[in-house]
Amino acid sequence: MKFVRSLLMGGAMAAVGGLAVWCSLPSAMAQKEAKSEGTKPEPKKFEFKPGQEYKSGVEWPEPKVVTPGPTSVSPPADAIVLFDGTDLSKWKNGDKWIIKDGEATAAKTGISTKDSFGDCQIHLEFASPAVVKGNGQGRGNSGVYIMGRYEVQILDSYENKTYFDGQCASLYKQHPPLVNVCRKPGEWQTYDIIFESPRFDADKKLTRPGYVTVLQNGVIVQNHFELHGGTFFDRPAAYVPHGPKAPLDLQFHGDAVKFRNIWIRELVDIQPVMKKDAEPAK
What we know:
It is a single chain. The protein is mainly β. It has two domains: 3-52, no CATH class; 80-266, Sandwich (Jelly Rolls). It is built from one helix and 24 strands. The protein has one helix spanning 28-37; strands spanning 3-5, 15-16, 19-20, 22-26, 43-47, 54-55, 58-59, 80-83, 91-92, 98-100, 103-105, 111-113, 120-127, 142-146, 150-154, 189-196, 199-200, 206-208, 211-216, 219-226, 249-250, 258-266, 274-275, 279-280. The longest helix is centred in the N-terminal third of the chain and has 10 residues, at 28-37.
């Protein structure tokens, strides 16, 4: 493959109508030289021909092999199981809740994991009381507090009206669910939550907000929502600087909400081993 340099900026070479056109990418050396001289990097140009494979030049490490669970709700091999139906020993105040028939029923107080987590995938199953009592926020109320600050609401929202940014699967007081997919009272439901924690710099300034995606009963109800800050009842959401990891909390709001099959996976982005100039395959 013949490489051609040009002083002209812009343009990309690709197959257009069977013709070869220019593709321009700045080389790493050109970027370094330009940065030191305060000028724009000179693009490295090469010719792509119709039907020729393109390679990015990025060298990736091989993704880790993780054995999935036997079902879509079972924990994969790299998950940390927080409740398997036997005890809540991985939670502070777990002894305050009622464990029976593989289920944990909220009682007396909220619970917090003994370990801390940042970016993560969370799976849990919950059921509001089968016997309906109360209405609005007084019916099957609990919550998943990610990092102890960012709440995904749990509520019996089956034919139960309340403010929309406070119903089940809402990001409390920030964003209602896209749809209401709640099952009937007493029936088991699932949450699958993907969370990207906010970032703060050394001066405790927010450099990147947090993001939350939620699937309830297999349906997307929050789609990569940008968090406005932590969850509060009596004031607007706001960020309060915190570390990269914090415990996961489950709320007790006075209702006997049941939980089972709780697990979490820590998420670490895959990083390239090295990056060189993009080039057509040879």
